Amino acid sequence: MVARFNGDRALSPLAKKEYVYIVFCMMEKTTNQSKISRRDRDADHSRAERGSTDRISADALKPGKKNGDPSETGRQVAKSTEMRRRIHEGATAVLAEVGYHRTSIIRVVERCSITSGALQHHFPTKLELMGSTADFLLRKSVRWFSEIKFKWEDKPDALQAGILRSWQEQHKTDDYSALLEILIAARTDAPLKERIAPAWETWANAMDQELAKLYPNPEERAKINQRITMGRALMVGLLVQDELFGDEALIEEILSAWHRLVTQDMP
């Protein structure tokens, strides 16, 4: 047993030496353990830093993983655009087939063969999906008019050709049937009407601009625009009748008669 200092009891010289030696050994051991612990902590920290650096370096070497990589951004944008187009086309097909009120997120998901999460990442609600689909279809309509107008220029029968082609290439398609479903639903659905109103205004302005390229004279353009609007209304009615009676020959005869009627006072 090691003797301790006691204020009332003096230790022998031998006991003092023994005590000092033991205390010295204990202090040395404690110091060494402290150094070892500190060295281990430093080593662990160094390994952690090297590991982090290695991971960062490895990630930096992966293609498309650098911050601000324009190629990666471009790929993501293209992927997102393609998915939205796919969803729009699926929604168009469902709308044309079952109508607005029976169109649902689930039906569109099944038509597109995608997950609900993939669709709702882009369009969280049916309202957003229907509004965006209307935008998509109206933009397609403007592109169609822009493409065929070059074939009308300087031709006296341009309006007749436009009426017949519009019936066959626009009104008789799933695109127009789907758009018509959305427009009819918007008549009594205030949120839907509000959602599609800007797209409709944009479409009308774009069509006016395209028409101005064909008919620069404002007065002549106003007359043509009036006839086109009436013709569009006529074709909507004929589209409903065609669905009910299916008499295509009669409908084309009516369209020809309409063309003769509206061009009587045209130069």
3D structure, described in words:
The termini are far apart. It is built from ten helices and no strands. The chain is 81% helix and 0% strand. With 267 residues, it is mainly α. Helix 5 packs antiparallel against helix 6 and helix 6 runs antiparallel to helix 10.
Please outline what is shown here.
By secondary structure, this protein is mainly α.
By DSSP (H or I, 4+ residues per run), the number of helices equals 10
Q: Roughly how many Å apart are the termini?
A: 129 Å
- SSE succession: HHHHHHHHHH
Average pLDDT, all residues: 76
Backbone shape: globular
For the largest beta-sheet, the strand count, sense and barrel status come to: none
Count of individual beta strands: 0
Residue fraction in strands: under 5%
Radius of gyration: 40 Å
Q: Decide which structural class fits the backbone.
A: mainly alpha
Low-pLDDT sequence parts = 1-11, 14-31, 47-65
| Helix coverage percent | over 70%
